[in-house]
Structure prediction request, 210 residues.
Amino acid sequence: MTKEITMLTIRLTPPFSKEQSIVALSQIHHPAAIRYDRQLLRPREEPGKYLSSQLKTQKLDLIHRHLWLAGLSQPARPLHRQQLLDRVIRLTESPDEHLVWHESRIFIKPIPEFLLSFEYWEKELCLDKELYKCACGLLLSYVWLVGHKSDFRIAKDTGMFPREVQWLNWTSFTEDFLSRIDVRTLHQVYVSRRLWTKLCVRIHVKLYVV
Prediction:
């Protein structure tokens, strides 16, 4: 009985209500295969590895303790501000490159549609604490980027957001999400990405390995 109570106590739940879910489980279709870690990864055969490739920042984790060298932490600027800084949005599917900027470019990962599905969180993400934390952090980054309606239009025009997402849906979803998470803790964990981008620029490290 005690063990059952403990399991129920630590069970993770989606960071938004079922009523605010934007994408249905039936609408989510993963790619047949992707290149990952210099190999061909098939999501249906290795779903856990696929989710790790979409959510975890393994390269950043290796240098996490050195990121204080890059300066103070702060959220990413919203999309309209990125445009005002003459930064061109380039899409990337790598979470390690998400929000990395250099000179006139900023790399942004399109929001994974499964992050907007209550059922998918219950089925997959809530079963793994590490994936859950990474998913919440990634979701928070889109809250940083898309706060104004002008940001939302840019997100849709650039392909960052899927067609199912509408402005009213997004604002309601965001409000619910922010009311259910510890924003300060997530900010401290995920903002390291901003420090990584500064560090890359300052010491001129090579960002990509082809």
